[in-house]
Amino acid sequence: MTAIVSSNRLSGIFRRRFVAMTLVSIVGLWSLESNAKTAPESFAQLAATLLPSVVNISTTQNVEGRQGPAMPQLPPGSPFEDFFKEFFDRNQPNTPSRRATSLGSGFIISEDGFVVTNNHVIAEADEISVILHDDTRLKAKLIGRDPKTDLAVLKVKSEKKLPAVSFGNSRKARVGDWVVAIGNPFGLGGTVTAGIISARGRDINAGPYDDFIQTDASINRGNSGGPMFNLKGQVIGINTAIFSPSGGSVGIGFAIPTSTAEPVIDQLRKSGTVKRGWLGVHIQAVTGEIAETLGLDQVGGALVASVIDQSPAAKGGIKYGDVILKFDGKDVGEMRSLPRIVAETEVGKPVAVEVWREGNDKILTVAVGELKDGQKIASKKSNTPSKELVINELGVTISSIHEKVRERFKLKPDVNGVVVTKVTEGGQAAEKNIRPGDLIIEVSQEKILIPADVREKIKAAKKADRKSVLLHLQSQSGMRFVAVRIDEN
């Protein structure tokens, strides 16, 4: 009897615990569902609202005809005259000039007729037409274009106010959020597709400021220049490219985020041109080894490999070897984000730049310059000659710069540092792609004048229990930093 009672009591305890666990599970599930955004039952209302603001872009281009070779001059009455005439008419016809047409997409951003599209949609056009949702065709004027971001702004005149859309904040868009794309795929016009944001910050090597949003919403040929909307009906991207082995949608499309596009569009709309900020540095990524060598707690920022003389960076006190962590209050999470941040900064604006230098944070003030073509790095001074030296820890043989090595490696007369004359196969330097002819300018952020300086810096690194040294190199491809492990030799 006692055993039965004990068993019933134990069963009751289990039941109470099971009920409690079930309630916790239900509460947790309810909490998760309450925080999640459910998928819309339909996109119909959103599409009906947005479709009138999306336009088709039609362009025409005059393509010059091709002239075939002229028939040779023959004596009057020659028996070959008919033969040559028939041959040239049949095999070498003259091609007349023709008008080529192409189609793309765009969207209206103001009631008075400003329209946004991709630069590649209108780049070679002689005439541009904008076709509204009600099939009204309007002649468009090119206000300005920017090949570096692949954006263009057009202007049309209409007797009535046009339905415009507004920009949203693409920075708030998250991977997994619903998006709607509207455009003119294959010339079909007014096509609506939906999907999610698949990824952010994609670099597809389309330009220097790549920061694309990736989506699985169907985007095909003709969608270029069309808008990507969030569920609030705000434009958060401009559909620009697809990845497709077949030419059709495979679920990988790319859109320029409005965080990149909006400042460019504003400038094009106001002046027809784009002014970009310029810092005047050559940069490279901070690897794990470089971060460790410099004493950084985490990998990030942009390592300054060289500074252009008389540039805004040089005037502001930025030095090669600095790691730029923040620019104008914006985090430089990785090297490739810095050019975009600088480019979007107002020309002439004094900004705070946070750098990591010699183990400490330092705040500098730099007046942003204007980016122009043709700016070059200034020359540098030569150094003092010395004998050749083998550095087993790095797997290199180095020499001072003298006439023989200058001729051998075709070095410029104004270079400095020591030159790598031999690289040990399978050594640490070989693994880092260091080659004969490369110049070592600094070791551990200290200048090198003679080969013996390299030996001393490695000894100092070993004494400090460092596992690697940071080399500042100059090669035919430019300046770079390389963290090299020190072999125990």
Describe the protein's architecture and organization.
The chain is an alpha+beta fold. Among the domains are: 170-271, Beta Barrel (Thrombin, subunit H); 277-370, Roll (Pdz3 Domain), CATH 2.30.42.10; 389-485, Pdz3 Domain, CATH 2.30.42. Helix content is 23%, strand content 32%. It is built from eleven helices and 27 strands. The protein has helices at 2-35, 44-50, 81-91, 119-122, 258-271, 288-294, 312-316, 337-343, 403-408, 428-431, 451-463; strands at residues 54-63, 98-108, 114-117, 127-131, 137-146, 151-156, 178-183, 191-202, 212-215, 227-229, 235-242, 253-257, 277-278, 281-285, 302-307, 323-327, 330-331, 350-357, 360-367, 369-370, 389-391, 396-399, 418-423, 439-443, 446-447, 468-475, 478-485. The strands form five sheets. Strands 21, 22, 23, 24, 25, 26 and 27 form a seven-stranded antiparallel beta sheet that branches. The protein has a six-stranded antiparallel barrel with strand order 1-2-3-6-5-4. A six-stranded antiparallel barrel has the order 7-8-9-12-11-10. The longest helix has 34 residues, at 2-35. It is elongated. The termini are far apart. The relative contact order is 0.08.
